[in-house]
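Progress against Task 2.4 (sequence-to-structure conversion) is shown through the following example record, which the project officer requested during the mid-term review.
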Amino acid sequence: MKEKEIAAAIREGRTALGMELGSTRIKAVLINENHDPIASGSHDWENRYENGIWTYSIADIWKGVQDSYKKMAQDVYNQYGETLTTIGAIGFSAMMHGYMAFDKNGEILVPFRTWRNTMTEEAAGKLTQLFSYHIPQRWSIAHLYQAILNKEEHVREIDYLITLEGYVHWKLTGQRVLGIGDCAGMFPIDSNTKEFHGRMMEQFDELVAGEAFPWKLRDIMPKVLTAGEAAGVLTEEGAKLLDASGNLKAGIPFCPPEGDAGTGMMATNSVAKRTGNVSAGTSVFAMVVLEKELSNVHQEIDLVTTPAGDPVAMVHCNNCTSDLNAWVSLFEEFARTMGMETDKNTLFSTLYQKALEGDKDGGNLLSYGYLSGEHLTHFEEGRPLFVRTPKSRFNLANFMRVHLYTALGALKMGMDILYEEGVKLDVLLGHGGLFKTKEAGQKIMAAAMKVPVAVMETAGEGGAWGAALLASYMIRREEGETLDHYLAKKVFAGETGTLVEPDPEDETGFEIFMERYKNGLSIERAAVDSLK
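Structure tokens generated for the chain above:
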């Protein structure tokens, strides 16, 4: 679209806005009718560690939301000469899960406890046993029950329990609602009814009946909404809160607020059954859309949903490329010491490509990139390790290959659990730093996962764009049009990206490496126990 056409679309509200509160950045992305980003703004922020809690203050939240919106609106004016007064629809996203508890006056009772906190092991374990359903530590219900076990006084005063994006949505619209994808990060979802699981809610109420709280669990939780449903409109108070300049008018419709996993699925076109996306960077996680629910409970697998409510299995690992990045930095230091200046991107690209020249099994080398603990392999702390035997084939190609392999080791173990459950995948959509180097990251991921891996140009647009797509879907979908159809036909039509099929020899080599990886976990355990 030309600038004049975009300006007219902005004036007439033929746009959609997505905003996402990520771990380190809050971003606002405005899109046009073609789903193209036309303006953006962002605000950097950091979590605080206060009194043993990872948190963000309420003041920080609103400062960041207002600043990113202001910068986006300024971008609109700078590019198109238009003052932003209306928008077709708005959607909010944020870090999933966590714990925000409010009293009847709308005041927060204790500081926001983010997904990063690991203080709920006792509660998560007991609830998993009670429900026969895996409850991760970061889920809201685990935080609530741990607060009850800890006899925290604030629990009796709770009037509303919500996640971060649901909180922002509530203050802007007055509506106590949440998208089903992040509802699944608060409490288990029944994919048949697309509501919180009724039997488990009753079990929880029975569990805490002796406390005689003035509430039942359902009373303090948000209403569950699926993609496409109306989720309220911007109030007069909300308009002033979002846009401090006062230019934005009330009455703009909102779509259900969603967690960052859900908007990540949107941004990678991976909401259809038998598809999934894998994000590989500092950490790595895969989201796989299931054809049916899993038959067994697995501590290694989190169960959530797509924004449309279809069941999703999530394999999340704390470690991926951090140790690999440290080795690349060491090579950069060596090059500079030798008087050779090299660009970091070039260095990564060269070393990743070199890995493809290595032996298929990594030359009998072994590495663990555990910079932090790894729950999937049962490590509470990490110790990065590199190990070889006298007969290992120790060269640069094998060294790089084994570090790329081990970055996916824990993920592979989680994905194998899904394959053993009979889960089928047609394609994985890749995004994140591992895929910046053409071919190498994709080729090794395809071998590890035994499935074709695609990378799209739009994958880098991120969750704020995904939230804008959800807002657009709500106002532009045709009667009865499903979310996966809308994305495939109206957003990603004709975009296939780069697809890499798994190489059978690479698959065999990765399996040999994985045997070494599993057998060597006792070495990692010894390092954790010995190196304090």
